[in-house]
Every structure is written in C-alpha cells, then in structure tokens.
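Quick bug: Purple acid phosphatase output formatted oddly.
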Amino acid sequence: MILIVFLISQSSALFTPMQVHLSWTEKSSEMCVMWQSRMSGEAKISYRPYLCKQNFDWKTINAQTSRIDFGTEMPRYSYIHTAIMTDLQADCYYEYTVGIGYFWTESFVFSGRTPGHDINTSYKMMIFGDLGTHYHGQKSLNLMKTMTETQEILGIMHMGDIGYNLEYDQGLIGDKFLDMIKPIATTHAYMTMPGNHEQANNFTAYKQRFLMPRNEASQNSSYFYSLNIGHVHYICLNTNPFLIIEQKSERKTMINWLKDDLFKANNNRNNVPWIIILHHHTFYCTLNPNMEMSRKDCEVQAEIIRNALEDIYYENKVDLVLAGHVHRYERQASIYKNQTILGDVDEQNKHVNAKAPIYIVSGSAGNRSNKNDPSSPYNYLWTRFVSDDFGFGMLTMINKTTLLWEQFSSESDKMIDYVYIIKQNNQTSS
Ligand SMILES: *[C@@H]1O[C@H](CO)[C@@H](O)[C@H](O)[C@H]1NC(C)=O
Ligand SMILES: *[C@@H]1O[C@H](CO)[C@@H](O)[C@H](O)[C@H]1NC(C)=O
Ligand SMILES: *[C@@H]1O[C@H](CO)[C@@H](O)[C@H](O)[C@H]1NC(C)=O
Ligand SMILES: *[C@@H]1O[C@H](CO)[C@@H](O)[C@H](O)[C@H]1NC(C)=O
Ligand SMILES: *[C@@H]1O[C@H](CO)[C@@H](O)[C@H](O)[C@H]1NC(C)=O
Ligand SMILES: *[C@@H]1O[C@H](CO)[C@@H](O)[C@H](O)[C@H]1NC(C)=O
Ligand SMILES: [Fe+2]
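Here's what came back:
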C-alpha cells in the first residue's frame, strides 16, 4: 500500500504538467500553449468557450512533444509539449487545462481577443525587459500579477533578458523562471524577444521554451515577427546579430524581412496607423560614459545598432521604439541622429504629430547588476524622464489617434511616468 502511494505520488510529480504558458501565433483566432513534464506521455489540451453566447463543449487536441537534453555531464532531460488552440472568438473567454496521460492541471482562463480582432477596442499591453528570477524580479511580478487580476490587460511583451539565464543549472533556471511567470502567463499571451542573455548555443534554450509567431524568414525561430493588434502594428526584433560578428547573414535576413514588413505596414496605415518596434538593445541611453559597462551599452553597442537600423525606422515613420537591456527607465523625446526633432506639440507628457520615433527604455523589471552611478547624466537634450526604480511599462491603445504609455514602479507600487502620443488627421511621423 505504502509502495503504491509512493509510486503514484512519484509518478504524478514526473508526469505533472508544469510551466504552462501562452503565446499568440502568426494567425488570429489562435493561442499557443506550451508546457513541460519530466516524463513523456500522451499530452493533450482541453478547452472550451466561457462567458459568452456560445455554449460549446470541451474540445480536446493532441500536443506535439519534443525531448530536451539539458546537459551531458549529469544527464537531465525533460519533455516540452506544444499545442495550438484554434477558432477562438473575440467575444469569448476560454477555459483550458493541459494533461499528460491521467495527470491534468487545474483550469486557466484567457481572453479570446487575439491579434487581428476588435480593431477599435481600447486595450492595455504590459511591456518590459530584463526580468530574471531574483528578488527584484519577484517583486515586479507581484505587482504585474495584481494588475492582470484587477484590470483588463490583453497581453505581455518581454523584450529580452528573460531568466538570467534560461540554460543555467542545466535548465533549472529556465524552469524556475517559467514557474515564476505562471500566474500571468497561463492567463495572458506572454510574448518574448531574445536578449543577450538568451544567446548561448545559438539561442537554443530560448527557442525550446518559447514559440513566437512563425515566419519563413526567421525559419520559425521566434527571433523576429510582427502582429497587428487594434490600431497598432507591433514589430519585435532580435538585436543580437548586430553585435555578433558571425551572424552577418542573420542580420541581412532580418533587415530584408523588416524592410518588407514596414513597406506592407505603411501601405496599411489607413487601417493600422501606429507602428511600434520592440527589441532588447536600445538606441539611446544616458548612463555615465566613464563607466566601462555603461560606455559599452550606451555608446559602443547603441551606436552599432543605430547605424544598422535608425535610418530604416526614420524613413518608415516608425512612431515608437521600446527597448530594455539598460536596467533602468528612460523616456526620451523624438530623436533622429541624436538630435531632438520637434513635433507639433512636445510637452513633458504629450507629443502631438511627432516627426521622428520616440524612444523608451524600460529595462528595470528585475535585474540590476548594481545601482547605476548616481552621477549618470540625465540632462541630454532629448531626455524626458529617468528613474532607477524597478518596474515595468503599460501601453494603452486608446483609439486610432491616441496612445498612452505609463511606467509603474514596483518599489512604490505607483505609476511614476506617463506620456500621451497623439496623431491627428491620420498623419504619420516625419
Ligand atoms: C472602427 O471605427 C470606425 C470609425 O468609428 C468605423 O468606421 C469602422 O467600421 C470600425 N471598424 C470596426 C472593425 O469595427
Ligand atoms: C542558429 O539558428 C538559426 C535559426 O534557427 C539558424 O538559421 C542558424 O543556422 C543557426 N546557426 C548555427 C551556427 O547553428
Ligand atoms: C514553419 O511553420 C509552419 C507552420 O507550422 C510550417 O508549415 C513550416 O514548414 C515551418 N518552416 C520551417 C522552416 O520550419
Ligand atoms: C544581472 O545582469 C547581469 C548583466 O546583464 C548578469 O551578469 C547578472 O548575472 C544578472 N544578475 C541577476 C541577479 O540576475
Ligand atoms: C548626443 O547628444 C548629447 C547632448 O544631448 C551629447 O552629450 C552626446 O555626446 C551626443 N552623442 C553622440 C554620439 O553624438
Ligand atoms: C481618442 O481618445 C482621446 C482621449 O480619450 C479623445 O480625446 C479623442 O477625442 C479620441 N479620438 C477619437 C477619434 O475617438
Ligand atoms: Fe541585456
């Protein structure tokens, strides 16, 4: 008897679905769910509409399973399961549960408003970089969780430097990170981009654990993709290849895809007027250039990335560029080639008809290697607001003409900065 109980409890631990998380795919009306188990088995997902007019029964589909080997010195392996829920309706919520054999999770609920739906409906998107599993990241996550529970938030975008590092301790850090974000990632699409801390072994751990919208150019690698959500066209990029000499061909492939994607987005601007680009490394930041790390981030590497991308953003009238990497919050004005470009109105908390991209760094979700040097200059001509508090951003698409960006501090649990970005008469920047 004791032996049987022991065996059941052991096998339940081995088969229990863990680290369940959601992401949007390249198609609207779809949601991808991924999870992990120690042992392989028949992996399935059951889901059904919830809180809407339809009253369908549970639908069960099989997942695809792949084995990952975390290391050779001490063998440790695990199974990653991926399934895609289809035909989701925007006016429904969905309840789902995932299982391996006889072992199923509790059920989770998410909104069926996938990208491409509800172009006129206002929504909020949580956005940040550099989270990790340490104390400060946990604290940010607590506030994120409270906000996802008390407000209608459509999705989450994590601009790289995900777990510090997903592959460490034979992947146990990756497990820990995905366990940590479970309260928000089982209920919201958790979208990612690779940062420098995802680079190991050609981004292997990143590609194994996250599936982002697929496209041919990226070879389904989750490196870069774009999505239309309401009146915003989001482009998520991988800035690492600009800093890795051997990745010359990856650089070229992504730039060609980007130019093509921007061309199409510009032709669709009557319907989707805003273009926002997100990636890990930033173009502009103001850390003290006398410090080695700061000089590397804000001068050397930022310049390499600007040289590769800034003209493309400017010529294609990109509205807003969001990044992480620098572990603080810095909001900047419209900039082109390090010069502030004036729009029709440029107040502290409001830009109207900007003439060049506005830049925001929100890379303070969790990791801070050390406090930034307090002598770091804040007084660049284009600096609008700087904070060293841990926290994260929230973008609200209010309507076709108005976006609101807010930054929240997880130290004071307060909103610490905001800016309205307004575009009248369907004008585009520049
Ligand atoms: C969005 O709103 C505009 C203006 O009010 C309207 O013309 C358009 O049909 C709406 N689009 C959708 C998909 O509801
Ligand atoms: C790295 O991964 C990308 C995309 O998955 C692939 O195109 C490339 O060939 C890989 N590079 C190496 C060196 O394995
Ligand atoms: C990418 O994914 C699509 C959709 O699942 C599939 O049809 C295609 O073969 C994949 N391409 C590559 C290069 O893996
Ligand atoms: C913070 O980031 C730095 C550099 O990006 C990294 O070396 C360090 O391990 C990270 N620390 C924590 C606590 O996550
Ligand atoms: C950018 O402009 C600031 C002044 O706003 C100046 O201090 C800085 O050196 C300039 N950087 C470059 C790379 O020109
Ligand atoms: C968009 O929202 C702003 C802020 O709430 C409002 O002032 C403006 O009139 C709205 N514009 C349209 C076209 O609905
Ligand atoms: Fe980074």
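Actually, after a second look the formatting is fine. The chain has six helices and 25 strands. Closing.
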